[in-house]
């Protein structure tokens, strides 16, 4: 136990952050099983001669992507999950510390046995240290990491749109696959459990498919911009941002869970119709549709109390419109979600600047902890 705690403290120090208060997974045995399949009569096992021939060809060709692959690939793993009900899943992951690996929560969810394989190893059983369904992140612990695998660092700020990126993982069970693209957008929100959202996600046009889940999206320096979450090979894929990972992963290592800030409201961005229904001068801000009973916002913020017909459409009216949290403008729901996810912790008191009944006012709100799903 002492060694476990020391190892976890070492991980937190290496990450350099303080704790704060679907590409889809693939079913094992599907086409492209990474344990070895037939393609044109040539076995594609990662440890076989075909892989060595591919590596030699890559070295001869050479490119900036070749350099990134060489720097990162040994730290990326195939993940295989088995459940007692006979079901299982397959995905990707990568090393973030001497013995800790990151993958997606949806890759390991419902599993009973967990295995990973590095580029030059056999399958090795690992344990799940912690999971967080609200950020779709999970941490695995491997006690026999090969020396060739080195931790991949998370970046400390969002990448500029247009940054060239590389996705490395195991789409369709094909281990060691690489796809390239750019950062297509930042500050995206993704659907999560219980109608919550994952804030601050990265959008990319790099090809991402089933089996890529949990793998790294890296820049050309090999630094991790995000953990791949979803995509379908259609030039629109998403990754959990490094900024959110830097908050969630240390907490999962430390005590197995992460506590998200919680306002206790349902929200929507202000649209032109909603602005007209609520006599707003501009279609900007975040509208409070409902305040949940017993939540942090109960008695502090107001939700809808009626509907109005605008252009033949019933539109909610009477709720507060949030313009700013502390000193951060919230022109959209995405901006509000990102502020809560990256800048606050449960128990914090924030100032909420809002429009109510045609006037602007500021109220204080103490944040709670998002309920478990």
From TrEMBL:
Residues 252-315 form the PDZ domain. Residues 27-57 are annotated as: Disordered. GO terms for biological process: proteolysis. It holds the Pfam family Trypsin_2. Residues 27-37 have a biased composition (Polar residues). GO terms for molecular function: serine-type endopeptidase activity. Keywords: Hydrolase, Protease. InterPro entries: Chloro_Bact_Ser_Proteases, PDZ, PDZ_sf, Peptidase_S1_PA, Peptidase_S1C, TAT_signal. This is Trypsin-like peptidase domain-containing protein.
